[in-house]
Structures are given as C-alpha cells and as structure tokens.
Fold these 2 entries.
Entry 1:
Amino acid sequence: MDTSEVSAAIRSAIASPTVVRAVGSGTWLHGGPVVNDAAASVVRPRGGVIEYTPGDLVISVHAGTTLEELSATCAASGQMLAIAPYGSPQSTIGAVVATASAAPLAYEDFTIRDLVLGLTAVTGTGDVVRLGGKVVKNVAGFDLVRLNTGAFGTLGIITEVNVRLHAKPIMDHVVTGTLVDAPNAWVLRLVENRAPLPMLVRLAPGEPAQLFARCTGNDARASALRGIVQSYGARNAFTLGSSDTSNASEPESPVAMLRHVPEQALVLRARTRPSDGASLIDAARVAFPDATLLFHPARGSLRITTMHTDHADARIAGFVASAPPSMPFSVVVEQGASPIAPSSALDLSVKRTFDPHGILNRRRPEYRDMAVV
Ligand SMILES: Cc1cc2nc3c(=O)[nH]c(=O)nc-3n(C[C@H](O)[C@H](O)[C@H](O)COP(=O)(O)OP(=O)(O)OC[C@H]3O[C@@H](n4cnc5c(N)ncnc54)[C@H](O)[C@@H]3O)c2cc1C
C-alpha cells in the first residue's frame, strides 16, 4: 500500500470500527511492547526506492523496503546503511524505524535514531504527516521524527523513510580475542581506555569472555585498531572475518551470527553506568545462569538471551531486586515476557492525540521498561 492507500485503510477502519496492525515482513510481531491482536486487520506499506542521490548520501524509500533491498541498492554506489539490527535482512526499514531496533557492532556505534532524517506517517485519524527532511539539521521545535522512531507504530503507520547513508570503508573486519581475567578487571579497562571502535563482549555459560571489535578504515587504521584490541588483554586476538552485512552472500559473517536470535528466546536489555558493568554482569549471571550475555562497554548495556523462559517474570523481578541499590539501571524486555505496570500519563496523552480512536498498535497494558534509579 502507498501512503494514500494506508490513509484510506485507516479511515475505513475508523468507520468499521476495527483495529489495524502495521506489518512489514512480519518477522517480529511477537516482540516488543505491542499487543499482537490476531483480529487486527493488516496494513502493509509497500516497498521500493523513491529517490536515491548517492552524492548526498541520502536515500528515500517506501517503508516496506527490506534491509537486503536497501543494501543492494546502496552497495552499487559503495554506500551502506550503518546498522544491521538483530533479526534478519528481511526486516523492513519502516519496522526498524518503528521499533528503533538495536544492532550489534553497528558502524561507529550508530543507532537508527541517528540515521533517520525524515519520514512520512499516517496517524490514527488517517491524516498524512511529513516529518523532517533529507538533510541532517532539519528540525525546528518538537522532533516528531524521533517521537515516531521507537513508538512501535502506536502513533502512526510509517509509509516512507529518508535515511542517511555512509561510504563503505575500505577495510571492515571483526577482530576477536579472549578476555581471560574477571569482568571487574576488563570492564574498567574497556570503559576507561575505549578505542573509537564498536565493541561487544560475549559471555556464554561455561566459556571465557570473548571480545568482538569492529575495525574499519584504511589498512593503517584497521591495523592500529587491531593493536588496540590486543592491548586490552584480549588473548589470541585474530581477525574473525568481514562485518559486511550488506553482502547477502556472506551470511556467516560475525555480525550476521550475532544478529541471529531464536524466536522462542527470552531477550532482555539492561543498562547501567558503563563503569558499573561488572556488577550488572554479576547480577545477570545470578538471575540467568543459563543466558548468553552481550555487554556493550560504551553504553553500559547488557543484552541477556536465554532459551529458559519458565517463570520469566519472577526471574526478571529477582534480577531487578538483586542489583546493588547504589547502581542505577533500567531493564527492557525485547521479547518473550511482559513485566508489570502501565504507560505514563504523558504516554497516554500523546497516544490520544495521534490515535484518538484507538485503532493503531497498542502497548500491552502490563508492559513496562523498568527503570530502577
Ligand atoms: C528473532 C528476532 C529477534 C529480534 N530481536 C530484537 C531485539 O532484541 N531488539 C530489537 O530492537 N529488535 C529486534 N528484532 C527486530 C528486528 O531488528 C526488526 O526491527 C524487525 O525484524 C523488523 O522486521 P519486520 O519488517 O519483519 O517487522 P514486523 O515484524 O513486520 O513488525 C515489527 C513491529 O513493527 C511494527 N511495524 C512494522 N512496520 C511498521 C510501519 N511501517 N510503521 C509502524 N509500525 C510498523 C509492527 O506492528 C510490529 O510491532 C528482532 C527480530 C527478530 C526476527
């Protein structure tokens, strides 16, 4: 559906009345904070490139364009979208923006919020709003582009997106090595001496901690960054492979492996001050001994993935309660559970403004991002 067809579908849903669900490729309808209402009628924005000006490093696409299609188009001009989120290359750009999807080892640690320049959305009244533009500094007043980024389609159905691109670096490698000492030693080393490169530490049960770092640039820069990785005490550091996720023929790239998440897994994201990372890791280890953890030293965030989903709510509550009181932190459920508490009054009033008939995606009433401060 193009923008006008989406608008017509919303107006007829208001008249029916019925609820609607924005759907991209439909790979993550079970995830995030949104009610997955089987009775909702599906609104599927179309895909395709609207305008691509390589010289401006900007592309405008319909929201149903998959990341794979986007990458193939940009790769022909030596350019790329800087992030490749968890999930698959079949994800649509509209959904990635709507969910503000997280991405492992994103180039320069970008998030999709950093890259969306503008978008078109259809609100719950059927009105079409065109937000932002095609240049980096294009917002005066309240930033509705970022309000819709991560709103999970609760405020509008995104139909078109303008994103900023980057030139593909000549070298783009993932370096990996084993961190042999305890987290309280290497967390401080990584946080205090952080090199300008995206890093993640993977902690799988019964295995030593493994550091992944994305080294990009020309030959000289990439090899200097590799040296820095070794200086962090990463034993046996070696180049694992390319991190070019835009190349669909390279599904075994390290980033592609990190992006893979089983649909049945419980996935949480916890965040604290980077320097408190070791305490957060310890608390997660106690609550989820069987989980694989991914620690992001620059953000102080910890991704917790476990296939043991029994008593998920109780285990999450135990995790929250076990953290030291002096450590501020927040927990978000990405998929597989639905902890407590309602949206704030501000959330509800913004929702009423953009979706007065309540026909767009709704947050699960019991869902909340738990902030412990
Ligand atoms: C197994 C798995 C694990 C994942 N884990 C994470 C994770 O931990 N963290 C994370 O951030 N992302 C995660 N993702 C999400 C992923 O990065 C993409 O955002 C998602 O897959 C989008 O692809 P899609 O087109 O299939 O979206 P869909 O499944 O079609 O939609 C995803 C959500 O976005 C809404 N939506 C879709 N299109 C629009 C639109 N045009 N306008 C408004 N709302 C829209 C849908 O209603 C739905 O709530 C995961 C995906 C998978 C498959």
Note: The longest helix spans residues 3-15.
Entry 2:
Amino acid sequence: MISNNPDSLVLEARGISKVFNTGNMFSRVQVNAVENADLKLYRGRVTALVGESGSGKSTIIRMLARIYDPTAGEIYFKGQNVSAQKGRHAILHYRSLVQMIFQDPFSSLNPVHKIDHHLLRPLQIHHKGATSKERRTLVNELLERVKLYPPEDFAYKYPHELSGGQRQRVAIARALAVEPEVMLADEPVSMLDVSIRIGILNLLDELRRDYNMAVLYVTHDIASARYFAQEIAVMYAGHIIEQGESETVIQQPKHPYTQLLLSAVPDPERGLKTATPSSEVVNPSAKNIAPSDTGCPFASRCPHVMDICRSQMPDYVRSDDNQMVRCHLYPEETNVIAMP
Ligand SMILES: Nc1ncnc2c1ncn2[C@@H]1O[C@H](COP(=O)(O)OP(=O)(O)O)[C@@H](O)[C@H]1O
Ligand code: SF4
Ligand SMILES: [Mg+2]
C-alpha cells in the first residue's frame, strides 16, 4: 500500500469555507455551505468524501475544481497556492491538471454535438495532438480507454443514442483527454442504474492505478466508499467531522454520525444490523439541518449529546492511527492538532 507521504500529496484544501448569499432584495439569507474544511488528495489514491444530501460535498469539490472561489482558505497544488492565481490563463492551466466529472451524464454532454466533438474540443484547447489526424487517433484511444469499442461505433453518435453508463464513460474520456493529475468525481454513479455502477467505479479505479492519479470520489453511500477508496472523509452540515484510512473509519468509526451512517450498511464482518435495504441512509430531516452557530451541528440528532455540545464546536483531534474526529466524546485520549 502506498503511504501518505508528503511527496505524493497533490492537491490540498486548507481551511476552505464557502458562504452563499441568497434571498431577494427584502430578505438576505447567508448559507454557510462549507466551513473551514481541510482535505488532502494523494497521487495514486482515492479519497472518498461522504455525507448526506446538502452537507456541502458538491461545494467542496467545486472549490477544488476552481468553479467556485472559496470565501476563505486556500487550495494548494503540489505546494503552490493556486487560489491566488486568477485569470483565464491560470484557470486553463489548472484544468489541464485537475479535471471534474459531474453527477449527471445527461446534462454534462451537449445534445447537439456528436461524441467525437466532446473529445476533440479539450484536445484542441489543451494543444494535444499536432494535426487533426493525430487528434482523431487520440479520440479513438480515449474511447477504447473507457471501454467503448469499437470506438468508431461511438465517435459519430449523439449523446441521446448512448445509455447513461456509456455517457458517463464519455465524460470520463473527456476528462482524461488532458491527462490530468487529479480527477474529481461528484457522485459519478448515483444517477446510473445500480447494475452498471460497479463497472464505472472499476473503470475509475483502473485509471487511477494506470495513470497514478489522485481521485476524489464524492458519494452519499459509505458502502461504495469502502469498496473504492483508501481514505474516507465524512461531512456533516458543512463540516468534515471524521477522516482517516478507509478501513480504520469503517472498522472503528468514532464520530456518532459516522456510526449512524454505518449502522445502515449491511456488513457481516462488523455484525451490524441492516436498518434500510439500501446503503443510503434515509434521513427525512436531511433538508432541515440547522447547524447552530457555535455548537456541534450534529447535536440535535446525536444520541450522546452533552451540554458542552450545544455551545462549543469540538476541535479536530487525532488518534494514534491517524484518524481525525471532531466530537466532544474524544477529548483526552487524543491530542488537539494544530491544523496547517
Ligand atoms: N449556488 C448556491 N447558492 C446557494 N446555496 C447553495 C448553492 N449551492 C449549494 N447551496 C447550499 O449549500 C449547502 C450545501 O450544498 P451542496 O454542496 O450542494 O451539498 P451536497 O453536494 O452535499 O448535497 C446546501 O444547503 C445548499 O442548499
Ligand atoms: S460533539 Fe456532542 S453532539 Fe456532536 S457528535 Fe460529539 S457527542 Fe454528539
Ligand atoms: Mg452534491
């Protein structure tokens, strides 16, 4: 197993936050979508960002993709602060290093253009292939790379002529076209039939291995995170509340919210009961998360809530096995880390 040595650190978020200002001219509403999040992505490793709907996963991934500017905090690519680099040229360069795959393969491809157009565009923009003939060859290679063969059968089709899984493969091929070092995947299989999800995840895993890419896999499904990722970060109401090696987080979940997520996952090894038929936690109050400004955001749902939880947000603490957790249940066994 590749260890998380600092040399393989590719992309890092340091204390990033995002505040959305919404509402109308009569009432302004501020949404703290993400608060003070730290995340590290390593070469050749998949990190899963897990949390329920509305917890801030897409906002984090969009900040990492530089679609949104963080309200606070910085993003570092191989030690360089890229948040400070503005302008079209800087963003274009960043896109040649960090690519994103979206949840919806239906809306991420333009219906009026054939598949080859979607793949030729990034090749042209990023100056891959010297001639149009060379770029045609690259298009075929990309389609084969995502297992759409024979490539000629797909290159001249329109997106609506493909299945959801095939379209997501095209979206992956498009991201691969620029030979990125980081692949950001925002719930890449959640809109696909259950039967084809595993094929897409296996493809992403193969590409991570073959290209030694860092992958961020965003999901609401902690079971798929375990299957696919070496690291897991769990989000709740805008905060990353637990992080660590997948096996550690799955076998010894520390935060009560992670424990709740896992209690819904069928796993004979852990001997936990199956609470729902799917591994997605059905949470009717997900849309009504009302994080208090000061206390732990999970306080209203936590079976272990204490007085201090309602008034004070817990600090990050790290345990011996390099697991990080933000919960008042773990004050002394661990030491408070100074976040970088
Ligand atoms: N563009 C936006 N404008 C206003 N609020 C937003 C916007 N995008 C997301 N939010 C809010 O930020 C919070 C986190 O959303 P999101 O990052 O999409 O969560 P997730 O991907 O985990 O479902 C939600 O409360 C959502 O309503
Ligand atoms: S800090 Fe308190 S309320 Fe929050 S998860 Fe821990 S015990 Fe529960
Ligand atoms: Mg989302």
Note: The first strand starts at residue 9 and ends at 23.
